[in-house]
Write a structure and sequence with these properties.
With 427 residues, the protein is of the alpha/beta class. It contains 14 helices and 12 strands.
């Protein structure tokens, strides 16, 4: 059974697709009845493409790789045996990872070698250079294939101190004269999973030691995510505080902090984090992360685990999705609203012109039978065209208006429900 977050994202995707359909119908109406021009057509095309490609991005940052990976697996991929991202020895070497669905390509895990750090190219530029990436195909219907492909993300290697310096990687684990570094700099996972097919993109951020060397990654996650989970341990660490101040604090995303009560986090730690991060108390949660993750992935039905993970799902479902809908609707209203109004005025002008000509026709009755007959035939044709035009316009306009009103009502109801049901977090 889909969880709250999955249900809301699926509803958001259906709403977005229906909105695109209505805008396409409006564009077709304009083409059919001579109301479109090149500039107008391009504006509507850009708007529709933006809606089609819109995605909800959920970012995970913090110190503990085990806890971040565990929460990603429990929140988003609990239907995959063991979760999607690899856990266990070596998971601390997992590089920044972007998880999404691209139907134009077969499923894959694609990695960028750490050696590319010796070049001046940004990761954004390297994404446009396929030859720099290593691609591993996987079968989404085979858990074994998924495990084999994703476990390669934990690969690491020992290099000399000089080699680490050449890669600008010094905040990493040292063993004698050698330094252990991740094998990969960035990873892309393309998987036809229900959550991802519904329009979700998950972004995993490595620890502060790597992010300090890859500020581009941290800025991308912080700036592009609509929701950011800052995953902490027992308390706020200096590394997590630095990541928050440098990258997360100014982000426009919804921000949540998760403390590990299983490691000893208590109500005092929640208050400290809320004050330090300037977050509302209900946006700072404590839960036994490892126990909750294990129970969710095992589908044990443990009531405490279900309640704990349910709080995270509920926060994201009730805050993230309605706000995204409202933002898109406002953008559509700003762009399409004037066009709809202009179309209505054009149709009204044609109607007035038709009435005037009918009045002229009446005044010619008995004076010139041939002229009257010609005008009558032409006006009858225009009347039929006008009626078809108005009918098509009214259907499209009604659809757009209904979807807008429905979304505004949904947003207000969700906001009201959240205010009424909000309870102080437990110690």
């Amino acid at each position: 059974m889909p969880n709250q977050l999955e249900q809301r994202i699926a509803q958001f995707t259906a709403w977005r697709e229906n909105l695109v359909k209505s805008i396409d119908e409006f564009r077709t109406w304009q083409d059919a009845y001579g109301q479109a021009d090149i500039e107008l057509t391009l504006r509507i095309y850009d708007l529709v493409e933006g809606l089609r490609n819109d995605r909800i991005r959920l970012g995970f940052m913090g110190e503990s790789a085990v806890d971040k990976i565990g929460l990603i697996n429990a929140l988003l991929f609990s239907d995959i045996p063991g979760g999607l991202l690899p856990l266990g020895e070596g998971c601390e070497f997992l590089c920044a990872t972007e998880i999404f669905h691209d139907p134009s390509e077969a499923p894959y895990v694609r990695v960028l070698p750490m050696e590319t750090r010796k070049r001046e190219d940004s990761i954004a530029n390297l994404r446009r250079s396929p030859v720099d990436w290593i691609t591993m195909r996987m079968n989404p219907d085979s858990p074994e294939s998924i495990v084999e492909a994703t476990h390669s993300l934990m690969e690491s290697r020992a290099v000399s101190v000089d080699e680490a310096k050449s890669l600008n990687l010094m905040n990493v684990e040292r063993s004698g004269d050698e330094v252990m570094i991740p094998a990969w700099r960035y990873a892309l996972i393309n998987l036809p999973h229900p959550m991802l097919k519904s329009g979700l993109i998950a972004l995993y951020g490595p620890g502060s030691n790597i992010l300090s060397s890859e500020p581009e990654v941290a800025m991308r996650i912080a700036s592009s995510s609509q929701s950011l989970l800052m995953v902490l341990g027992k308390e706020l660490t200096p590394g997590a505080r630095d990541v928050w101040k440098q990258f997360v604090q100014t982000s426009q995303s919804h921000k949540f902090a998760v403390l590990d009560s299983g490691a000893g986090a208590d109500a005092a730690a929640e208050r400290t984090v809320a004050a330090e991060f300037a977050l509302a108390p209900e946006y700072v949660l404590s839960l036994p992360i490892k126990q909750t993750v294990a129970s969710r992935l095992a589908n044990s039905g443990d009531a405490a685990a279900v309640a704990a993970i349910g709080r995270l799902e509920k926060l994201n479902a009730e805050k993230l999705v309605p706000e995204r809908q409202a933002l898109l609707l406002n953008a559509v209203s700003r762009e399409i609203g004037p066009l709809v109004q202009s179309a209505r005025q054009a149709v009204a002008a044609r109607f007035i012109a038709c009435i005037k000509e009918m009045q002229d026709l009446t005044s010619t009755a008995g004076k010139n039978r041939n002229v009257a007959q010609d005008m009558l035939t032409r006006l009858e044709n225009e009347r039929k065209t006008y009626q078809k035009s108005v009918a098509a316009f009214n259907v499209t306009y009604s659809d757009l208006t209904a979807k807008g009103q429905e979304d505004r009502k949904s947003t207000r109801l969700n906001s009201s429900h959240t205010d009424i049901s909000r309870m102080p977090s437990s110690a």
